[in-house]
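ok so I'm stuck.
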Amino acid sequence: MSGSPVEHTDVGAYALGLLEEEDRRAFEEHLHGCGQCRAELRQMRGMADVLSDLRDEAAAPEPAPAPAPAPDAVEPRRP
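replied:
not stuck anymore, here's the structure
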């Protein structure tokens, strides 16, 4: 978004910490005069943590599958 005007749709990106430095500063300045964005940001409080936890779970490697059970005994071949 760098160089473009602040959008009300940036609330989610701001809450998740996804805005670049310049955009973050511009959005924070926008927040001072926009009650709608401040209210939406308050509603999102805590959601960033939940989404971050989900992202961490999705990025975690899957556990290795359990090895197949070993046969108790191998029967010898009968002629």
